[in-house]
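This is your field. Have a critical look at both lines of this record:
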Amino acid sequence: MSSRRRFGGRLVLAGTASVVALVVTGCGGGGNGGDEVASAVGDKTGDKASASGSSELADYVEAQRKWVKCLRGEGLDAPDPDAKGMVDLGDRTKWKRDPKALKAQEKCAELNVPVPESLEKAQQPELTKEEIRTNQRYAKCMQEHGAPDFPDTGADGRILEITWDSTSAGAKRATRVCGPIIGIPTDAPSPQG
């Protein structure tokens, strides 16, 4: 599953199994073709939890770099991840309508790893009542229109991050029917295999 979040009309993606939600801070230029990313690990050593968190973050940033490289290999202009692995993909309509973007997302999906729980919780603002109702309506719609294994929402109103079959004909039909609830246009093209 993946998280989808809107920030000022921009789609910010953070890898989870379906869609994605990330924030932007940007990276410094590194000189070797844009492959350098701001360091996620500081110079000071801390306790084991801190070191473990730093390692988790560093692994996530590296995975995001591989995902971005794949997107670029498919011809998309995707920026480097920031120091927390966030990738600002800009205008969300491109990622929902452009067949090239949809195909690249599908092709690179296996490289799009979930945001580490510690990082995701630190980044997620509390949902409004309207956002919670929207997520609940979307989950129910998906389940009723062909994706019975689509996850429910949790106590916080977010759609639970569990694996579901997003490739079945029923799931694709449900996505077309229910997409407008979360802002996916009804005329958005489906990715072609």
